[in-house]
Amino acid sequence: MPLAKYLSIIALATAGLAALPAAASPLQFDTIASGAVSSAGQRTPNILEGSFRNNYFVFDLADAPMAADLSLTIMSNGSYSGLGALDTVTFSLFAVSDATRDAVAANMGGRDVYADLGDGAVLGSISVPTPGASGAMPALTIDLGAAKDAFNAARGGLFALGGSTDVTGGAQFLWLSSNTLPVARLDVAPVPLPAALMPMLTALGGLAALRRARRG
Question: What range defines the domain where residue 169 resides?
Answer without folding.
Answer: 31-193
